[in-house]
Amino acid sequence: MQQLLTVKEIMQLTGRSARTIRRWFENEPGTIILPGHDEQMHKRRYRTLRVPVAVFRRIFAQKKLC
User: Considering only Cβ atoms within 10 Å of each terminal Cβ, which end of the chain, N or C, has fewer?
Assistant: First the structure.
């Protein structure tokens, strides 16, 4: 089974903000988006991202941050 990283774990590894991490990974193939509750009036939608380690390594190799 492949290890999955949370946004918080990636934040700790890279020092980047949650917003940046979500922006980088939300449309990447392989990233798992777990649905939460839908967006309602005056409330933002809630989604949980899980990033496989292989996807994390690929993106950071492309961005040359690690």
Answer: N
